[in-house]
Design a protein that fits this description.
By secondary structure, the chain is mainly β. Helices cover about 0% and strands about 55% of the residues. The chain has a single domain, classed as Ribosomal protein L33 (Rubrerythrin, domain 2).
């Protein structure tokens, strides 16, 4: 998966409950300054949980 633009960066999303890093996505660093929070399915917890951006 390539990076779309010069301002887009790859970010890793980790589950809040089990801290496992499950997803990667891109975000525009110019428009989104704070960390992303998405509700995604965690295969380890086997339920939908909040996933936050990690370093």
């Amino acid at each position: 998966m390539g990076i779309k633009g010069k301002n887009d960066r790859m970010v890793v999303l980790a589950c809040e409950d089990c801290k496992e890093r499950n997803y990667t996505t891109t975000k525009n660093k110019k428009t989104l300054k704070e960390r992303m929070e998405l509700n995604k399915f965690c295969p380890r917890c086997n339920k939908h949980t909040v996933h936050k951006e990690t370093k």
